[in-house]
Specification:
The protein is mainly alpha-helical. The chain contains eleven helices and three strands. It has helices at residues 12-19, 26-32, 36-44, 53-74, 80-91, 93-102, 113-117, 124-141, 146-166, 173-181, 224-236, and strands at residues 189-197, 204-211, 214-221. The chain has a three-stranded antiparallel sheet, with helices on one face.
């Protein structure tokens, strides 16, 4: 084996250095890093194997509390609808997978052979869930100290809010377009998926916004919902709304 080749999963002590937190109970961290495919393989050999799904469930709620508190305190003039959109944008699977990639979380995970061969270490659905499980494991290991979680997670959240704000993806282009179209009676606006490319873990979707059956805008993105937003954004240019 080439001496420069990584042996995965990497040592969890390396992850502790990256996240700036040392566990009292290392097994909590290992559980957070264990995908169900790995634990299922162990169970098939009559060995005990816990996975990170229960921790992911808890981590999802912990993350929501931390982000909600931050947005409530930071954006004092925003209404509930705006705050919900921001929160959804920064805790969605795509965002969580981005945070996980920043700390190389996939390299520390325990995966079954099938997921290992199918690039599971870089699959957003796997790494996003593992990030939430990691939060839960830190929360439990720190004896439920929310400040530990805030110090760790808010750095990611603040950077993501800045990034999204600069790219205007908090704007609900579909609602804006619908409001313009509704000014004229009898108009039919719809969004049609016209193409999708790429592997399952990294697809690109292309959607057309159509007015009475005629294309008025096209958008592409990593999710169907976002591609619809981009199509609406393009269509708004026809009405003098350029963003």
């Amino acid at each position: 084996m080439n001496n420069t080749e990584k042996v995965l999963p990497l040592s969890i002590e390396g992850l502790e250095k990256i996240i700036g937190y040392t566990y009292s109970d290392k097994e909590l961290l290992r559980k957070a890093l264990t995908h169900s495919s790995f634990s299922n393989e162990k169970k098939s050999k009559n060995k005990k194997g816990d996975c990170n799904e229960r921790l992911e469930f808890l981590g999802d709620s912990i993350l929501s509390i931390v982000v909600s508190e931050y947005l409530f305190s930071r954006y004092v003039d925003n209404q509930e609808g705006d705050l919900s959109k921001i929160r959804s944008s920064v805790v969605c699977e795509k965002a969580l997978a981005k945070y996980a990639a920043e700390i190389g979380l996939g390299d520390y995970m325990y995966l079954g052979r099938g997921e290992e061969l199918n690039n599971g270490r870089h699959r957003p659905s796997i790494t996003a869930d593992a990030f939430e499980a990691l939060l839960a494991s830190m929360y439990l290991d720190s004896e439920r100290d929310m400040e530990v979680i805030r110090r760790f997670v808010l750095g990611f959240i603040k950077r993501e809010i800045d990034f999204i704000s600069k790219n205007s993806t908090f704007v609900d282009y579909k609602t804006m377009l619908q409001q313009i179209i509704q000014q004229s009676e009898g108009e039919k606006l719809e969004y049609v998926l016209v193409d999708e490319t790429g592997p399952d873990h990294s697809k690109t979707f292309v959607t057309e916004a159509r007015l009475n059956g005629s294309p008025i805008g096209k958008g592409s993105a990593g999710s169907k919902r976002e591609s619809e937003q981009m199509a609406a954004k393009e269509a708004l240019k026809l009405f003098g709304e350029d963003y």
